[in-house]
Specification:
- By secondary structure, the chain is α/β, with parallel strands linked by helices.
- The chain has a single domain (6-210), classed as TIM Barrel (Alpha-Beta Barrel).
- Helices cover 24% and strands 23% of the residues.
- Strands 1-2-3-4-5-6-7-8 form an 8-stranded parallel barrel.
- It is globular.
């Protein structure tokens, strides 16, 4: 029997919304530390940040080409469990983050021309990959890539699927048989506005995925 998929809800900004999300069957919360994102948490009031980060669930900090020292300071300050690297971070940078005591997720933007051999240098260095839709700029596109592309990945590192996942995609995702698919990264497809998740849509989708 295939194990239940990890559910990561990313782009959290509102404490009350987060409380409702935590009542669902999820494993990770994602917080975006990339200033150009609409879901950036770095400019939120201190009281809001305290509320957001006092949860005991696995907290994932999403960074893009961040200065390594600043990244590690923020990771310690907010007691992050995972660091998700969404830029051009090298395997060496990933290793430095891991050596500092954090689990590491490395994201790759996938399109029809993506060469999955690029992931090999990170094998054994990171805990998970995220396969997202390739975009011209950093940050989510809200669009899917062709999930058939996943068949070209035969590495050993488990991965989470990201990129434009929407409430109506549960059946399609359940048909993906890839042995290294271990989780889903949910964000803009379940929002009423940037950072504000639609709880009913999330609950229905998660119930379908985990049934």
């Amino acid at each position: 029997m295939k194990q239940k998929l990890i559910i990561k809800v990313c782009g959290i900004k509102f404490p009350e919304n987060q409380e409702a999300i935590l009542e669902l069957s999820i494993e990770m919360l994602g917080f975006i530390f990339y200033p150009n994102s609409k879901r950036y948490v770095g400019n939120l009031p201190k009281e809001t940040l305290i509320q957001l980060f006092q949860t005991n669930i696995s907290k994932v900090g999403v960074f893009v080409n961040e200065d390594i020292q600043n990244l590690l300071e923020l990771a310690k300050k907010y007691q992050l469990s995972f660091i998700q690297l969404h830029g051009k971070e090298t395997p060496e940078i990933c290793q430095r983050v891991k050596n500092s005591g954090f689990k590491v997720i490395k994201a790759f933007g996938v399109d029809e021309d993506f060469n999955f051999k690029l992931t090999e240098a990170y094998s054994g260095v990171v805990d998970y990959f995220i396969f997202d839709t390739k975009a011209r700029t950093y940050g989510g596109t809200g669009k899917k890539f062709n999930w058939k592309q996943l068949e070209k990945y035969n590495g050993k590192t488990p991965f989470l699927l990201s990129g434009g996942i929407k409430p109506e995609d549960a059946d399609s995702i359940k048909k993906i048989q890839h042995p290294k698919l271990v989780g889903l990264d949910l964000n803009s497809g379940f929002e009423d506005q940037p950072g504000l998740k639609n709880i009913q849509q999330l609950k229905k989708f998660i119930d379908e995925i985990k049934s």
